[in-house]
Every structure is written in structure tokens, then in C-alpha cells.
Design a protein that fits this description.
The structure is a single chain. The chain folds into two domains: about 30-55 and about 110-115 and about 150-410, Integrin alpha, N-terminal (Methylamine Dehydrogenase, Chain H, 7 Propeller), CATH 2.130.10; about 60-110 and about 115-150, no CATH class. Helix content is about 0%, strand content about 45%. The chain is built from no helices and 42 strands. The protein is an all-beta fold and about 400 residues long. The strands form 14 sheets. Strands 1-42-40-39 form a four-stranded antiparallel β-sheet, with no helix packed on it. It has a four-stranded antiparallel β-sheet with strand order 3-4-6-7, with no helix packed on it. Strands 9-10-12-13 form a four-stranded antiparallel β-sheet, with no helix packed on it.
Length: about 400
Amino acid sequence: MRSTNFSVRPAVALAILTLIATGTPATSQQEKVLHNFKEGGYYGSFPGSSLILDSRGNLYGTTPIGDIREGGIVFQLSPKTTGTGWTATTLHAFSGIAGDGSDPVASLIFDAAGNLYGTTYSSGAYGWGTVFELSPTTGGTWTETILYSFGNGSDAQHPGSSLILDAAGNLYGTTYSGGTDNLGTVFELSPAAGGDWTETVLHSFSTGTDGQYPQSAVILDPAGNLYGTTTLGGAYDIGTVFELSPADNSWTEKILHSFKPNGHDGGIPFAGLTMDHAGNLYGTTNFGGLHGYGTVFEIGPASQSEKILHNFSGRPDGEYPYAGLIFDASGNLYGTTTDGGTAGSGAVFKMTPTTPTGTGWTETVLHSFGAGNSTDGSFPDAAVVFDALGNLYGTTTYGGTYNDGTVFAIRP
């Protein structure tokens, strides 16, 4: 298996799972590389996060490496108004000095006013990462504000996930380390008077059967509960799905599922969750399943029982999904695998429910990276996103003209 963890990404002790699945052969889709990243100079390289879109069809993302100071960048890709192609613009280059962050490994979010929010894994005032805001100016530039620097005392450390925003303007996220036992946290940032922000650690992951080392974002349900995954910990130390519920000015954690090394269940979920209208949770595991190449799973809201929807089986099927899933309007799920596909360079896949209740699912590989094309992207670590026309967009960590990663589109 290829390792895609940069120095800015946490190293995870991987459990050895001897486990097996079925895959559907790849089908041809119209994939196009929109942008080739290039290491050195003022360029970004090796993107590992998902993209977001604005109402004008511009794409935004991060790279953990880039600019002459190599602190990483926030970039924008805009479709050209004349002709074809896309224009890349660096909105902010992180320096890691004077309190600035460095190594942004997570995707961004917008607020209603058009400001961007994100995290950096490293640097800041204490060296353990930051939460930042980028605000557009009338001159077309963007101004960065560090909202919070992690690592003061027993605080949270190393935020490796993207953020979510609630209706009151509070931000939520996870950190891979820090907290009471240095096993990671879930935190909240709340706006305060004078433009300041107040951080609260909602949960510190602990030893024993609790989850440990969360690497993905949390999601919020209509009742205000948070859901997420941890890469390790749980009853068998290969990861968990957890719920945090607010009660009396505190939060109560519940482990919904501990992944099991039983030759069937998945393990080591790097990705976060997505929820359908019925409250079912969907996600991926990087390992485990019948073949050991990872799974797509579902957890129901009532009994919290887990169902394996797909076992990745290796080429030409995908292998080792690192990112989460998204729904389309018809209830189909889409995701990526870092490896596998026809050429072993990763894949984009689709999960289609075969019954009205979604009790059966069929997987189809939409695109295999690198198959017969040396300039294609390779090894996608991030989830895909849709635009209003049904086009899929994503990033690959490697591949492209300079082998430093790409932004790609898949046309329906």
C-alpha cells in the first residue's frame, strides 16, 4: 500500500487486518485535469483536501506545501471568461512566522458573508496549529485573521480536520492530539465581543475504550448533536464512530460503534460521516472488510447497528478509501479511494441503492486514475464535490504534469 501521509499528517499505528469484497469493473467517464500543481516558487503542491464552490462556480482549496516559505496556501480556481481553462490564484500563503499558521491539510468552509474559514495543522502562537479566517476586500485581495492558536497548556493540538458552522456562528472541529490524555479533542470556537473568539474543549478523548486520534470533521444534526470518527481507540483499538450530545452546559459522549478485527468489519476510519434525511450515518474505513482494502458502512439511528454496504476488493476496484462520502439528489453516494482502480493509482466510485429502502447497494468505479495517461492525477486523498450541473470536482495528491497533484473534474 502506498503511504500518502506527509510530515504534517499524523502517523497512525496501523492494525494488521486479514480480511476480503466484490467490486464492479471500471466504467469510462469523462475526466479532465483542470489544474496541475507545481512544487517550488509561489505554487502550491500535494493537495490532500476537498474543494468547495461559490455561487459563481469558483473552486477553493488548500495545499499543505507551497509558496517560497513552504507553509502551504489557500488557492482559488476560476473558469476563464473567454476561451477555455481555469485561472489559479493564491489567496493566502502561510508563513508559520509571527503567529501565522502553516500546513493547512483540511478543506475550507464559507459563511453567509463570503468569508472563508479553515485550520492549519502547525505553527501559530504556540506551534500547535490555528483556526483562521480569510475575508475578501474590495480590491480583490483577501485578509487573514488568526481566530485561535492551539496548544496553550493542556489545550487541543494539531487540528487536522475542516470546520463546521452552526446557525449561531459557532465553529466546531477536531484536533488529532492534545486534551487531557493527549489523544485528541472535539472543540468549539464561539465569537465574543470585540472580534475575539472563545475556545471550549467539548470532549477530550481518553484511554480505555474511548475513541482516540480523530482526524476528520464532525457533522451536526438538527437537534444539535455532533457525530464523528476516531482513527484508533474503541473496544478493539481500530477506531470508533461517536456522538456528542449537549446537556446542561456540558456534552455527553456515546460510542455508537467500535470497529472490530473480525474479518468482516472495517477499521481505521480516517474520514468523517455524512447523514441522510432518516438519520442514518454513512462513512468509509481505510482498512478491513472481507478483503482488507476498506469498506463503506452505514449506522442506523435507532439501534446503532452497523451494515457493510461495500467491501473494496482491489484492482480494478478501489482500495483504501481515505475520504468521506457525498450524496446526490437521487440518493447515490460518491467517494474516492487512494489506491486501486485499473492502474492502482486510485479511483472515484459511486454507490447506488438497489432497492427503494437502500438495503442493497451496487458499487461502480467511475474513473481510475493514471490508466493509460501519464499526465492524469493519482492517489486522491479527498472527497469529491458537486456543482449545480452535476459535475464532480476533486483533488489528487500526486500525478499531473509535474507529479505534484491536480484538480480534476468528472462530467456526467
